[in-house]
Every structure is written in structure tokens, then in C-alpha cells.
Amino acid sequence: MNNTPHPAPADAAAALAAPALGPDELDEIDTLLDDLRTRGEEIPQWEFCDGFLTALICSRRPIPPSEYLPMLLGDGAAIDLAEGEPLPLLPAFADAAQQARFLELWMLRWNEVEAQLDAPVESLDDDRTFQPEAMDMRGAVASLPEDQRAEMAGQEIPSFGQVWALGFMFAVENWPEDWAAPRDKEAAKWLDDALDSIVALTEDDTGKPEVCMFSEDGPPSTSQARVETFGEAIWAVYDLRQLWKSLGPRIETVRKVAEPGRNDPCWCGSGKKFKKCHGA
User: Fold this and answer.
1) Which of 150, 191, 220, 245 is least enclosed, having the fewest CB within 10 Å?
2) Which residues belong to the signal peptide in this entry (predicted)?
């Protein structure tokens, strides 16, 4: 990946052994993003970031940080860097140390997701299965004491996994050429079906609350249909990762314009033969 702070991808076994973001690291990154919001507009929550990161890993083309970080944390304008040139400090970060720490935490999650998606799993119960950083905010709010729940009355609370899916689709929508349907009809349908499964997770859960994804003994906050939709979205991510890996990078077709023959009239309209004009 050009202009990237990430190390070269390790093999799946080594990457699986890499540490994931534990509770302390997740608290740290939430605090870091809160601080970024004091300087940058529309800095997303970590759940959104995780969906965005996952889409980048699934993308057909390796998109460098000089493109995706400004889209996620800045004004969206890609940074023009020469080969090997380090990433400059983005305006949202307080200093280089803060940016480096964010990238370090980002890299830990990146390597974990990449390893999970490349692992040969056949069941969502497998310990190696990809686990999105999806939140059950409705379950979290429902588990609060009554007085704290009252303070949040009237606020719109996202459904389980909704913010994660919005982050994923944000990446898809901002690099449409890299997510364009392939010419092969079977592959194109594969792509459409997988994206439809993730789009379904961006919609509101209007079903009857039956389970709590926030805690096992929490009040019901999520419909069983939503849980099934979430599982389908996970398999869709695997499908997208494998689809683009099997197809490889998109080949740009360069159409060569035939030059006139040396004795043909010049294309510029001078009336001279090509060999006496622009072909000289």
C-alpha cells in the first residue's frame, strides 16, 4: 500500500496472534476521537471508523492513508505525496504523537480484521470469525438507571450494527470506481448481493425487541430478525474480500489512437502530408 504506515501484511497465523484492541485501547481511542472533535467537524464514532476500515480492507484497490484518512477525519481532499514520503500531520490531530498513536491503534485493528477475513471459517461460532465493532446502543441505554434513561428521552438511538454499516457504505460510496460491478455476471451478482446485505444493516430495526446484544441479561433491545441480518452482513464481508482478491486489481484500459500514415493528410488540417508536418 503506497504511502502507508502499516507494515507489510503478515501471514494469517502471525496476524491472528497479534493483539486486538482491548477495553483499555478502546477507551483510549474513544477519548482520542473526542479530542479530535474539538478541532475537526464531523469526526465519527469508533464504530463508524471500524466499518470504514473494514470496507478499505475489502476494497479491490489498496487505498493509501493519504486518500482515506482525509476522507474519514478531514475535508475529504486526498493528500498528494511522492513515493516514500511520510504522511503529514492532519489538522484534526493535536500533534504528531497523537496522530502516530491513532495510526498505531488503527494498525492493530487493521491487522486483526485482515487476518480474520483471511481465516478459513465455516461458522460464526468459530473463534477466528470476524467480529465487527458493532454496538447495541439501544441495549446500553435500556440498561441505564431510570433517571439516566429519562435524560435521553426523545433522542434517536441507532439500531444494533447500524453505525458500523453506515461507515462501511461511506467508504463504498466515496470510491465508486473501486466498487464498480465487474463485467462477469456471476461476479456482479455476488457483489450486489453482498452489498445488499450490508445496506440492510444501515436501516432501522423496527422489529419486536427480543434479545439484548449489550449484555446477556439486559432488557430486550434488538429483534431476532436484526440478529440474522447482522450475521448475513458478516458473511457478506467475507464474500467481498474473496471476490476482489479473486479478481485482482482493476486493469485500466488505454486506448491508443492510430496515427495517420506518413503520406496521409496531417490531422491538424494544414493540407500538408503528415510526414511534412506533425510527423516530421
Assistant:
1) 150
2) none
